[in-house]
Amino acid sequence: MCLGIPGQIVKITDPARMMAMADVSGVRREVNVACIADGPLDTLIGSWALIHVGFAMSAIDEHEAAKTLEALRGLGEAQETLEAMAQGDAALEGDRLEDAS
User: Fold this and answer.
1) Which of 51, 61, 65, 90 could bridge across to 6 with cysteines, CB 3.0–4.6 Å?
2) Rounded distance, CA 20 to CA 66, Å?
3) What is the full DSSP assignment across the chain?
């Protein structure tokens, strides 16, 4: 499964290689913008894109970026809840085994 994380292009780092700096939830990462470039690279600064494995895969608008980030945060919270539940179940199972002996 391919998962793209919204990132905002903040700077062009190497125009010859079509590389730019993207801010992905506060983490800056250099990405290739060849897939989203449609004209001068400087026009990409401030725009949003789905970032995957060092590539800006597709351009998205700011509203879509915000909704996607919110959904991903929600999935992270759900994952944390599931892990906490699994740890709780494992602890209960351990208590049952001790009580049976």
Assistant:
1) 65
2) 21
3) ----EEEEEEEEEEGGGTEEEEEETTEEEEEE-TTT--S-GGGGTT-EEEEETTEEEEEE-HHHHHHHHHHHHHHHHHHHHHHHHHHHHHHHHHHHHHHH-
CB 22 within 8 A of CB 28: yes
- pLDDT digit string (tens) for 43-96? 999 999 999 988 999 999 999 999 988 888 887 765 665 576 677 667 767 666
* Residues 6 or more apart whose Cβ sits within 8 Å of residue 54: 29, 30, 31, 32
